[in-house]
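User: Continuing from earlier, I have the next pair ready.

Assistant: Great, send them over.

User: Here they are, in order.

Assistant: Folding the first of the pair now:
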Amino acid sequence: MRLRLVSLAALVAAMAPVAPALALSPAVAPAAAPLAQDLPAAPVADLVAEVDIPWSRFTLDNGLTVIVHEDRKAPVVAVSVWYNVGSKDEPAGSTGFAHLFEHLMFGGSENAPGSYLGRMRNLGPSNLNGTTWFDRTNYFQTVPTPALEQALFLESDRMGYLLGEVGQPVLDLQRGVVQNEKRQRDNQPYGLFSYTQLEVLFPEGHPYRHSTIGSMADLDAASLETVRNWFRDNYGPNNAVVVLSGDIDEATARTLMTRYFGPIARGPVNAPAQAAVPTLDAPVAVTLKDRVANTRLTRSWAVPGMLDADAVPLQVGAEILGGLASSRLDNQLVRGDQTAVSVLANMNAYHRVGIFEMAANVKPGEDATAVGARMDAILADLIANGPSEEEVARVATGYVSRLVQSLEQVNGKASTLAEGQLYAGDPDHYKRELEAYASVTPARVQAAMQKWLTRPVASITIEPGDREAYVEAAAAPSGAAPVPAAEIQRVARMEMPPIGDVPDLDFPDVERARLSNGVEVVYARVDTVPVTRVAVEFDAGYAADRADRLGAQAMMLDLMDDGTTTRDSTALAEAQERLGASINLSATMDRTAATLSTVTANLAPSLTLLSDMVRNPAFAPSEVERIRAQRLSGLANERTQPGAIAARALPPLMYGAESPYGRSFTGTGDEATIRALTRADLVAEHNAWVRPDNATVFVVSDLPLAQVTAQLEAAFGDWRAPATAKGTKAFDAPIPASSARIVLIDRPQSPQSLIYGGAVLPVSGTDDLLTLNAANTSLGTDFLSRINADLRETKGWSYGVRGGPNALEHRVPYIVNAPVQANRTGESIAALIAQYERFLGPDGVTPEEREKTVNGNTRSLAGGFETSAQILGALRSNALYRRPDDYQETLSSRTRALTAAQMDAAARAVIDPDQFIWVVVGDASVVQPQLEALGLPVEVRSIQ
């Protein structure tokens, strides 16, 4: 199985039903299994031929490089701005400055004061964000074509006319936000590993030795003049690349870019830091302690960067070692020895250098030293004997297939072109990489691994235990002390251009067919790229678990993905890789699904594989036991993650234990039920829920419906329901009355608390929630919603706060997700309650909020349904909530008709903060006194 490193999105994702917590490896089929059908794949060369991004390029007089890609499939344009500066360019004592300035760039500019994100919301953008990494800082948004000029005005204003809005209050606020982002990352299991990895691999003074997020001390020391000078030195137009991708041509782009960016003065010439690839003098071994469930063993080497001839061979080697589902580490440590519960290997290629790493999470009870020796031996064998031709080919096919699918979005193509231009001076650099993947040989992979991975290694082990004391920010940052700063001379500009009329969404026509066994097919055609996406969906989900079998649905899905009666686990993995297909078995609270994404050239064999996994799971007894052990390890891991701890605790408090929704949103059950589940239980679970009379097939493809239906018929048409009864779910258990209270779950040594609160609303997902969701945009989901504007953008206590209805099919919960710095936990709950009371009382939706919500929600529709994956999601949600096929096309007119009074009435009718149960995951020694001061009942629990 793949080693899942915790992402920042994990906390937000916990608001919604989630997929099984473990994506486990396929199982071994019985020895007497019949032979599997051969699945021929299209040649890699044919897939490579599908990849092309035509572009043109010009340079303004001030040195700004502009690249234009024309794609008229939707009335949207991606604007992607890449600055050739990142954390590797930061001098000593200024770590984190590049990322801090990324945040400052969202604080408004001289001719567009106030939040950049707030202004952009009015344009209806999708993919709106900014990121910082070692080598670059980038900003991107996809906007409706009629809003492009205003987007270019705003983007150019922060490139050329920013500093007048960067004052001490803005710096102090964003310093606090960034430090809370750092706490949020550091608060995760294994969250401190990357700091040690960089410090061990790179010597003092090396540009890549420090993390992009920086240190608390350096962030504290950032003064106003220092950060202003950082902008002056690095953010000139001659140090940037702008890509316009979508509904635009070169002539229009020249006119607009000259108009808005042309007057910006050229900046200093920036020479990004050079960096050699260091070699350790001798092997280094470091052991860290962390509040984790599994010992993690890691091996790391500094290697060449992305432009080196060895980069692709090393990336291919990493995939074969521990990236593929059929990787050497998976096959031998997870499936074979069963001494590890998860493994990983990858090669992170940066501009100047790269990091090659492998890791294994040790199975509880196993000897970590022996597992480490085995891991080292597997690598040594791969280096000594090299990979096979077939392994290399599977990696290449997967890489090309993923690239083809990534090019659906105009922003994806913009990023591909910008990265090539910034790092290689060639927007077609992606073609060079494609050629390298298509031509790489086993000998070339072996030679690169021999050259770079036989040098001294950095071995870092993370063991369960108490962390070292956390290095916190200063109570009074030195950089917050006001010092005289030169007055910024503002430059008058043209008026901000208006936004033109944005056309309503034209959603693809929905067609239907039915297989010979009665299974309905719901289809939409999208021919942007040669890709087909399929979802075979079942009315099941985690809510289908019986009270005495919690976790059965998720464990069943693991085993469906882990061996069939015709293919063992390795054969399943290799078949997907050979086809470049991605098959996933997952569940939400309401639905279970087997999804397929593949290049259309490989659709028929991919459907055969999908059908085999859905219809013929082996449930081999030995694999049941292996998956059981991994499930138990996963449960232990959940007890270390703030988001999972909260997602396990809140549902039964809201719904009651008897409700199908009154169990963990992770769907993973509990230790007692996982230990008790038998093979017969899992077979019965499959017979009850995964069957043709409980299925609907959703398809988005570039092929016409008739061709898709014929291939589906070949794969699923002869599938018949078993004689046993179909499963049923009962939602008649009463939901307990609720009143405001706090449940504090003690998680010692947490630099941040996770506030996860909510209540069950008197509405269902099948109700019309348009007005309620529109009202909640201003209250809880927009970047400048009342709660995020308060806790992040005003107080700086959080990296991000969100609250809103979670549209389950039956009774809908309202959930607030608020990670906050530990010493502000009590104040944050008080502030949240106050914001809800004000919004639901005298201070409802303002005219400005209503206008911004209407504009943002309607103008963003074209970008929101740009890809086949988005279209497929819409087909599935329309079925779940029993909406008409043209639902998406009605959204604009219905939203424009809403009044502020209607929004207020919808919110006040169902949301009551006096019913909110607040789960807090944090250090009780720090948090409990704060919570008791609020006057609400407080119950303290240990992690369960």
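And the other member of the pair:
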Amino acid sequence: MREELLQYLKNQTAFLNLDDLSELFTASKLAEIFKVKRNTVSQYLNQLTETGELVKINSRPVYYFHKGAFEKQFFVLKENHYESVRAIQTEQPMFGKEQELFSLLIGHDKSLKRVIEQIKAALNYPDGGLPVLINGESGTGKSYLVELIHHYCVQKELLPEDAPFITLNCAQYANNPELLTSNLFGSVKGSYTGADSDRKGAFEAADGGILFLDEVHRLNAEGQEKLFTYLDQGQIYRMGDTNHPITVHTRLFFATTEELTSNFLTTFIRRIPIQTTIPSLQQRGRNERLELIYSFLLNEQATIRRDLIISGQTLELLASGNFKGNIGELKNIIKVMTAKALSESEPDQPIKLTIYQLPEALLSMNHQSMQTALPAEILIHSDSRLDNLMLTNTQSQKRVEDSFAKMILAYQEAQGQLVDCQLKLKELVNQLFDYLLFETDRQQKHEMLLYLTKYVRETFRQMESAYQIKFNGNSVYAVGYYLFQRGAGRWLPEDPHIRELIRQLERQISEAYPASYHYVQRILEMCRPKIDIEISAMDRIVLTLYLKKADWIKEQGIAKAVIVAHGYATASSIANVANRFLENDIFESFDMPLDVTPQQIAEEILDYSENNDISNGLVILVDMGSLKEIYQYFPKQINVPIVIMNNVTTPLAIAIGENIKQQRTLNEIASKSAAEATFDWEIIYPEENRTKALLTTCQTGIGTAAQICHLLEKSLPNSCELKIVPYEFRFLAEKKQEETVFSIYDVLGIIGTDDPQVAEIPYLSLEELISGDEQQVLTEWLAPVMTPEENQIFNTNVIRNFSLEKVIDSVTILDTDKVMSEIDRFMRDLELAGKIQLSNAKKLALYVHVSCLIERLIRNVPIETYDGYSDLYQCQKELLKNIKQAFSVIERDYSVTIPDSELAYIFDIVYKNTDSAMKDEEF
């Protein structure tokens, strides 16, 4: 009972929402679930809290959740007992990322990103969402994904908290359609031998929730057809009763390991608009495979409650292995390896996973070179977390932690008196930095070291400018190496007595070295958001002792200067140019929104004054606004002279900076700079050396234009400097050559779905590009910017990237084959109704346009306006009616309705500039 309760809470805690705690985490609800007395459950819950496996919130009602699962998903907790949810939330790291349920999936932001996007589109579609078919090899995680989808729907209130989740494996009924019918749809009394009462099926059981049909490819054609009524009408019939339909509201998910084209009826597939594929383990990146391995090792460590050590060679073989059973097989291999290693281990010793526990088949597949660099062995213990393991640096981190412990012990032995242990602490700090700088192997993570050192150097440069100090050159590298070897973890002792000692030591250090402590605080605060680390009190103590006063000197002070301007990067740009011209960081910049008030500007400047030494005066350059209004918000406590100058420009900033560098008085700085900052003006229009560009455009919006741009960019040779620019059709059509883009670029031509009729700029339609009829035209356009060899490469890439299937796949998340089939039917019906013959060019245009249109309608974001629709309707009522009728099959299959504005755009494609003259009688 105790272990079952712990496992249940572990599973539920992964989906915990502190802002809306579920009653599932209360003793009374747990007693109801496990069918035992509440007192019994409470006794177990309190025991597990005392052992540190659960966390208890002493609110009303009292809540319990799994500590390890919480820390794995959210953040590290200091205690096991809390008086309120708020007390827990105060411990959340300032820069912690907000998690959503799909982040539980390893690869959610990489290999599974498109899968999740498609599923979210299906889930958020109105009226119960869209059916989804998930394809993927065995063991890729299809069932786990659907379970996560159920929790996501509950969290986002798409389903109620008690919504059912029903799974039915179709393989069990592959050769028995009658049994399938009974289990899916239920049966009435007497419908078959032994049916002595009415019985609900899976559909009714899943009403208001999710029905997951796994191994759906095992259904034969008859079995697939039995699902049509629900997919089309949302109704079912119990076996033996065809007169009483039952309306059911459930979200349908299907899973298969087989090819869709060869195992399913086309009439079944076209009824499922969202079809997505989970990649195999081999198709996923190395980092994702490592994350999966670490997550399984963490699970095994939690199960056996012993430390695990995995050798670098074993880790490499697992990460590079080819597993036919994918994630499921990898998980089982690690479980079996752990079991073998556990049986061979000594009591109270870490369990060692080596190549000797690996399957022989995995060893035989190894093709590593003898020169392949292997990772170090990895220690997995109860405090290990997945994010730390991905950046592990175990030996150096342990040395840092050991030094921390020795420093606290020395302070404790000195009875909490810094003066009695000061020399010992400095000695320990120097030993630590000697080890980190000279005895560690920095080659394995050289890129990370360079990354950290870069930001530390930038931070030191800003500090030197802000405080007029100069650091010893070695300080940059010392702090960089320290942060690199220290790693991303937090050193947080559990003993409250030790935590109190650290607080006392930090206070005494700050009093003994106030300037150094303040500089260290600022350095770490500025570094933290850039290098993604959690700063602790011990970091401040160690670095303060290392960066003692001998490592920095105070320079002669000069006035500080800031630029405040409205706009996204106005102040930043002026400050950057001026600082580079002056070869000194004179100016700090503040970019403000247009609606900022003088009071808000004053608050920004006051915040700057609190973190910078302005004792030598402050010069404020602003772009506009009342100077008096800004100054009146400064408190009387500011006792330094301030110069405020309006209408800032780059020449004015440079003049101010030059005078500040010469250490002139504030009065001289203002008067001389104002006199020096004169300016002339002239308008110059570029005529030569403009970047050559192609424009892409679409009559119905920038989205398709951007996708065409993306495909063209993929086709360009790497050495080509041609610019591809997506552009709004209406801007081109209205302003023609007066549009700004023609002043910026030397536009060689326009590619799109409709010609904006820009004089002297050639146009190539998307359908001509896809068909290849005008390939020579494009070649001629690009002759000035490409060599013949580059042009040949580009033509080859265009042929490959601009096949009709690839273009449609790039502009929609829907299944390409299904969409093209639906559009084929639409065009046939339109030709019959209108008695017309569509040219190949118009068919290609309709393929692209209608595929985008279907997705817009499914997403509920149609184009709702069309200029001149009323006049068009009066003149072309019958033709619009034909289009509407032909489109009805798509409306029915996708459960959408096409608005009049979208009909008008299709009319333009079909009949605009058509070769078949329309009769005057139609007007």
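Worth noting for the second one:
The two ends are 82 Å apart (CA to CA). Confidence is low (pLDDT under 50) at residues 93-98, 369-373, 914-923.
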